[in-house]
Amino acid sequence: MQATATPTASPDAAQAAGHAHGNALVKPGYDERLTNEDLAPLRRQTWGTYNIFAFWMSDVHSVGGYITAGSLFALGLSSWQVLVSLLVGIVIVQFFCNLVARPSQATGTPYPVICRASFGVLGANIPAVIRGLIAVAWYGIQTYLASSAFLVLALHFFPALAPYADAKLHGFAGLSALGWCAFMTLWVLQALVFWNGMETIRKFIDWAGPAVYVVMIALAIWLVQKAGWQNVNFTLSFLKYTGWDAVPVMLTAIALVVSYFSGPMLNFGDFSRYAKDFRSARRGNFWGLPVNFLGFSLLTVITTSATLPVFGKLITDPVETVSHIDSTFAMLLGAFTFMTATIGINIVANFVSPAFDFSNVSPKHISWRTGGMIAAVASIFITPWNLYNNPQVIHYTLDILGAFIGPLFGILIADYYLVRRQRVAVDDLYTMSAQGRYWYRNGYNPAAVLTLLPSALVPILCVVVPAWQGLANYSWFIGMGMALLLYRLLAPRLMAAHLADRG
To answer: In angstroms, how far is CA 354 from the centroid of its own chain?
Structure first.
């Protein structure tokens, strides 16, 4: 049995070796219970540095991203401390994204398939379903947030619609009639982009990220001119931390940045699989994370700081900032841009991921498109506006699910780098044969399952146990670290037969 395999042969060689479906290579020995043309290895990997860079621009520049970054001021940090925290956090994200990128880029396989190496060919459904459920919740919330920009436009141009924006007068399931129209409009637009496939998604994110940059730069310049540079105070917090007293608070801010990106970071392989080489993925991560995030952070600090002298209050939501501008053109451009930005992040972070994840559960019956639409429909039924309007519910729901992200990351990294030494038998990822390297009794790798349980339990306790909640912001690091160590210890003992011919 070969310890490594290269799925990116030339088209002619690929045709000779198996059956080519579009850009996928399905070999005769692949089990149909594990394979479809969306999950099979890619024949051609064409994404370059700019495509990965544009992916991160779309992922960073969202309404939720600006609100999250702006909220760091509430921790009691000055602007320069917020800026440092944002940059340190994103460098950590870049490091871990490079680790996740390599296995999927080398094999041409998406996240749930590469997880078959660590969890077993059936056990990979555990990380797939967990990541998919998190994406469903965030997909609904991000769509709801983007629809607020649509509401701003509708009420600006048609003030008579105001009664229909009141859920008490005209509403259903907690959302107003106008809110439903806005939500479903965004829902359909996103579905149309997704339905046209990954190439359309690539083209969309290639221009969506830069477009948001242009508008945010224009907004920052307008705010500074309106306020006067001398009136923009970059020390905004009422509670100030100076010297060493600021370090623990900055560490919390850094952890929040990593946690915010933990979902896209975990399934980054869904996108790095398209990179033509690992160097392109690594360079795209450099320009898209620390460099891009520096610009994002500066814009966040400047625009948030300037809202105080211009509007008399601190505003962290860019949609609200735009709504205060007395210019129809500016409001129209801003609202359209923020809708575009949120569609971008929603597709890359919360549509593509569950599409692969749910398809992995039953490849024969669930295609990539079907998996994505399952997530999209489910996002309606969870009524995300009720989740978002109840911080306690969303806190426990997403934090408990999120407590699994760190351990899943730790297991994937430990298996690929520490246990298997970057060797993957690609063909064995698609077979349920007892001779397959990733087939275990019942299809589940016991080392991964036994690692996941305690590594997730501790972060969950950090969320729900009051005495432990001081560690809740660090749950990703705790879960990831525990999983990394536990899996490294358990794998040689519980997987000895599977590792004997590692070569």
So the answer is: 11
* Conformational region of residue 5, where left means phi above 0, alpha means psi within -120 to 50, and beta covers everything else: beta
Residues comprising the chain, all counted: 503
- Is 8's pLDDT higher than 70? no
Q: Which range among 6-10, 26-30, 153-157, 308-312 has the greatest average pLDDT?
A: 308-312
CATH number, domain of 385, equals: 1.10.4160.10
| 368, part of any domain | yes
Quick one: CA torsion of 354, 355, 356, 358, rounded to 10 degrees?
70
Query: How much is the pTM?
Result: 0.83
**Number of structural domains found in the chain:** 1
Among candidates 287, 246, 402, 228, which has minimal Cα distance to 52? 287
Q: Which residue has the tokens 């010297």?
A: 243
Pairing of strands 24-26, 171-172: unpaired
What would you report as the CA-atom Rg of the chain, rounded to the nearest whole angstrom? 23
Residue given tokens 């970057």 in the structure block: 422
Could you read off the pLDDT of 414-432 as tens digits, one per residue? 999 999 999 999 999 999 9
CB within 8 Å of 135: residues ≥ 6 apart: 263, 349, 350, 351, 353, 354, 357, 375
Which residues make Cβ contacts (< 8 Å) with residue 244, sequence separation at least 6? none
Report, as an integer, the average pLDDT of 230-239: 64
Q: Chain-wide mean pLDDT for the chain? A: 83
- CA atoms of 381 and 372, how far apart (whole Å): 15
Gap between the Cα atoms of 128 and 250, Å rounded: 33
Residue 214's domain spans which residues? Answer: 11-499
Q: Which two tokens stand for residue 217?
A: 């730069």
